[in-house]
Amino acid sequence: MTRPxxxxxxxxxxxxxxxxxxxxxxxxxxxxxxxTFRLLLQFMHRETRVEPASLSIPELNADRILDFLDCLEKxxxxxxxxxxxxxTAIRSFYRMxxxxxxESVGVATRVLAIPL
Length: 116
Known about the structure:
By secondary structure, the chain is mostly helical. The chain is 70% helix and 0% strand.
């Protein structure tokens, strides 16, 4: 059995290849996505004590994403529109993961099913 895919390698590919080269997003959008993942990784470290470099895709599942989004609203007082912008970044990442990592399709599908 293989070890679960790590988030870090996918994030690197997401920012260096997917967003820049393939989707050609603006620098402002990429910065917004970067901020989303910085907050998400900090949240995951605080909640699980797993270092970001060791975080796997199965650990970053739909339940954890929902906890993160709830935290944004409660602790950071984010509006629903800010929450949805963060979710859009996360969903974009998981669309790429689903295409590139067949073993992570189940986790990706559940994250993509989180409604805006």
